[in-house]
Amino acid sequence: MTQLTPYHEDQELDNNTSTNVHFRDILEQHINRRSLITKTASGAVALTLASTLTGCNDNDNKSNNNNGGTNPPIDPNKKPEKLNFTTVPKNLNDIVTVPEGYEAHVLYALGDSINPTYAEWDDNNIPSGPSFQFRSGDCHDGMSYFGLNTATGRYDEQQSNDGLLVLNHEYINPTFLHPKGPSKVDGRRPEDEVIREVNAHGVSIIHVKKDTKTQKVELVKNSVYNRRITGSTLMEFAGPAAGNALLATKFSPSGVQTRGTHNNCGNGYTPWGTYLTTEENFIGYFQRSGTDKYQRTATEEIALKRYGLGLSIDYQYEKNPDGTPKKNEKGEIIYILDAQKNKIPNLDEQGRIQYLNTNSRYGWETAQGQVESQDLYDRWNADVKAANAGQDYRNAPNTFGWMVEIDPFDSRQAPVKRTALGRFAHEDCRTSRVIEGQNLAFYMGDDSRGEYIYKFVSDAKWDPKDINGGYRAGDKYMNSGKFYVAKFNADGTGQWLELSYGKNGLTESNPVYPFKSQADVVTFARLAADSVGATKMDRPEWCAVNPVNGEVYVTLTNNSNRGSSYPTDAANPRNYEDLYNNQKVQKGNVNGHIIRFREAEDKTTAESFKWDIYLFGAEAAMASNINLSGLTDSNDFSSPDGMWFDPRGVLWIQTDDGAYTDVTNCMMLAALPGQLNDGSKATTSNGTETIVGAKVNDENLRRFLTGPKECEITGVTMTPDYKAIFINVQHPGEDAKSYAAPTSNWPATQTDPNNTTARPRSATVVITRKDGGVIVG
Ligand code: FEO
Ligand code: CA
Ligand code: CA
Prior knowledge:
Blueprint: H1 21-33, H2 43-53, E1 102-109, E2 140-149, E3 154-155, E4 162-169, H3 174-177, H4 191-199, E5 202-210, E6 217-219, E7 227-229, E8 234-238, E9 257-259, E10 267-269, E11 275-278, H5 298-306, H6 375-378, E12 403-406, E13 416-418, E14 426-431, E15 439-446, E16 449-451, E17 453-461, H7 470-478, E18 481-488, E19 493-498, H8 518-523, H9 525-532, E20 537-538, E21 540-545, E22 552-556, E23 578-580, E24 584-586, E25 593-599, E26 608-616, E27 640-645, E28 651-655, E29 667-671, E30 680-683, E31 689-692, E32 701-706, E33 712-718, E34 724-730, H10 748-751, E35 763-769
Parallel strand pairs: 8-13
Antiparallel strand pairs: 1-35, 2-3, 2-4, 4-5, 5-6, 5-7, 8-9, 10-11, 11-12, 12-13, 14-15, 15-17, 16-20, 17-18, 18-19, 19-26, 21-22, 22-25, 23-24, 25-26, 27-28, 28-29, 29-32, 30-31, 33-34, 34-35
Bound molecules: MU-OXO-diiron and calcium ion (2 copies).
C-alpha cells in the first residue's frame, strides 16, 4: 500500500551494511577500550513563460564586486565580540519567538501566489494542482539570498534592497496540502493531487524588496524573476555520468537530460552567483515490483540495494481468516519456520523465490494521465519493462540523488545536475573560502545513518572574472576535479580518500562493485566510499565554512543506532540513554554533534586534515560526560541540522529534532566559535575517547529563536547589510492525523495567537530589528 500517512524525515534510510576496513579498525580499538556503561503541470510551460518575461539576461561577465566573489561579501571585521541579545527560552508555543527588540514576519508560505494572476491562498479553497507552478511549494528548506542589480538583471553580491531569495521545497505534508488530505481511488492517486504534489516539490525563486528605512521585506509579486522549479522541470546532466548508459531513460535515451528535482534539502551557493540544490531522500519516490529481481543483473542489484531500492524476500506467514498476517503481542508478523527454524520463502510457479514489491512514498506512478501524458507518471516505476534502458524507466532512480545547479538570474537555460559531485542522499553543499588562484572545494554530507562526508575539489583555480558566469562557470568549476570521501582517525587526524576510477582499488576487480569508469564511481559513490574505507558518521547534514579561518563544520544530527549496529568511535563517540516525556527510552547518539576540521596547510586540495568536535547537543541537565560542551538552559539543544556561517563569522545552528521536543520546539542558535583544538581530550559516558572543543558559554552560544509546534527550523540566509535574516519553518503540525484536526495553526498564529482552526503551512520568515539595526550587531 502506498504510504499516505505523513512522511517523517527520521524514517531515514539505513542502507550502509558495508564492513569496510577502517570500520573494523575502529571497532577493534573500541572493544579494546571496553565500554564503561553498558501538463500544464510540467516544467515546460513555466520555462516558456518565464523566458518570455525575462529579457535582461545577457550572461555578461562583469563583476559588480570587490570582494573576490562570495555570497554575500565576507567581512570578519564586523563579527560581534560577544552575543548580547536576550536569550529566547525553551518553549512549546505555537509561534516563532525572537529576542526582545526583534520582529518576525511571515514572508512566503505554502500555496502563496508568485504571480498576480493567481489568487491569494485560502485555506477553504485549495487551488488546483497545476496552479502550484505559480505558488509556493511545501516543506521549505535550504535557502540563499542573491543581491539583484535591477539595472543589469544580474547578481550583485552587495545589494541588500533587491534580491532573489531562492529556497528548497523538500517534500510535502499531504494531510494539509490537499482539500481533505491525500486519497486513492481504486488503487490510484487522483491526477490533480499528484500534479499538486509534484509541483509542491522543487525550488522557488522569488524577488524580495527591503525598505531602506524600515527594513521591512516584501515579496515583489509581479516580478519577472519569480519562478518555480518543480519535480517536472527539464534538467540537463553534466560531468562524468552525463551521457552514460546508467542515465539512459525513455525520456532521454542518450542520458543527457531528465525531468525534475525533488527532496531538495540543504543547499549551497557558488562564488559566481548560482544556487545549488540537493536531492536527499530521493529513492523513496520510486516503485519496484518483486518480479523485477529476475530482470536485473547481480551488479544492478548491488547498486539498487545500497541506495535503498533492494527487494525483500516474500516469506510465508500465519494468516488471519481474512488473509491478513497474524501478529504477536509486539505487533510483529508471525512467520512460518522450517525444521531448522528458518523462514520459508514463497515460491512462484517456476519454483523461484518470490520478492515483495517496494512501495513509493506518494504513489505517483499510480496516476492516470488525462491532463498530463501518462509518461510523467510511468517514470516513477523503476521496473525493467522493455528491451533496453532507453525504452523504460529502470534507470530513473539514477537520474536523482545529484547536486543541481540553478542560475536564479537565467530562466532560459535548464538547471544542471552536476554529476562530478557524486550521487547519494545529498544534504547540503558548502563552498570553501574563495581565494583567487586557488582551487574551490565543495563540502557535502550524505544524510543517512552511517553514511559519509564528501568533498569535490575543482581542477580550475578561482578567477573572480567568472562572477556572473552562470552555467558556463559551473561547467568550469564543477565538471572536472577530484572527488573524495572522509576518513576520521581516532587521534584527531583524518584523510581524504580519493574516489577516482583506477585509483584506490576503484576498478573492475573491486570486490564491492565492478567499477568500469568514473561514471560508475560517481553514480554509485556510496559503494566507492565503502570500498576505500570511509568513516560511517551519525547522519551528516549541513556543512559550513568559517570565513575567519576556513575551518569546515558538519552537523551530525543524531543516530539511534550508534553504539549498536554502528559501534562508537572517536568522531561519533556517544551512546547513551535518555527519556522522552519521562517514558520512552531513546538510545544511541540521541542529541547529535557538530564536527569540525581544518585542511592541512589550509589548502582546499589537501588530502589530510585535523578534526575535533566543536559542539555536542545535549540537555542542560545531562551528565557532564554526555553534555560535554557544558550547555546550559540558555543554549541547550538537540539534533543540529541546518547550519551556516554568515560572512562575519557568526555561526547559525538550527534543529530538526524529535528527542527534546517534549520540552521545547525546534530552534535556531547563534554562535561565535573559536577554532580547532581550543578544547581538550574527553571521555564519553560510554567510555569512548574523543577530542572536544572549548566549553561554550552564554556569550558565545545563545538561543536566538524558537519555532511553532512540531516544526523544524531550517534554511538561513541574510541580506549583505546584515539587517534582515531569513529562516524557514518546515512542517509545523506534522503529527496531525487529519486535516480536520490540526495540531498547529501556524503561520496564522503569528499574527493571531488565538487562532485554533487555520491549516499549518511551511513558510519563510524574515526577522529584522525594530530599530532597523544589524542582526546580533
Ligand atoms: Fe532533509 Fe537530512 O534533512
Ligand atoms: Ca529527554
Ligand atoms: Ca536537513
